[in-house]
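Okay, can you check this protein?
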Amino acid sequence: MEDTVNRVIKVRPSSKRNALTLICLGFTLIFIFWLISLFLWQTFKIQLILLICISLMIAFIGFLKYIEPETSFFITPEMIKYCHLNGKWSLRWQDIIRFGEIKADVRGQHTQLPYLGIKLNNLDHLAKNISPRLANKLIHEQQELIVLAIINKEISAEEDLINFEPYTLNDVVYKGPIAAWLHRSEQLAKAYGYHLYLPESSLDRDINQFLRLLKECHHYIIVNGPA
């Protein structure tokens, strides 16, 4: 465990898989359907337009995967750093209380959601280093969690609205997207017990394996301190 903790662990997101394959497939299909259209355009005009649009969508999805950061997480003895297309945040180990699975009632069944949760004892460091652009993006990416919490009556329907009121934290007043994200983190903590939510698509392994890794690193560093 010591060797693992005392080196930088880089995590490549599973969402980047098959990016080049999709780009190549999309443009190959476009080329094929373009060739076919030279001979059969009048007969199959509507079908060819539809197929070309689908091919463009496949290539576009591949492009979106391709431009995502190569590394989604840097796990070091000092902190966890999350890299997103829209920004980044870093989190000190001493600010973390625990990690855990996110479970909720979905259509009458207790289901594990595709997220890993982090409960914090201090939002101050995170609030200071998260970018407004990423804060805004996370609010929208996690909307499904809010909707599910409302359905399960964990929070009220009024809390679905994004709250842009200033948020005061340790005498520092946050405004704009960061304030809205802090309010949203409070709502999610009320519903699920965690402040941060790591999507499964940002991981490079099974969510339970990644959870085990984080728990081991956290326990070792808190007990022994960073190298």
Notes: The chain has two domains: 15-67, 78-224.
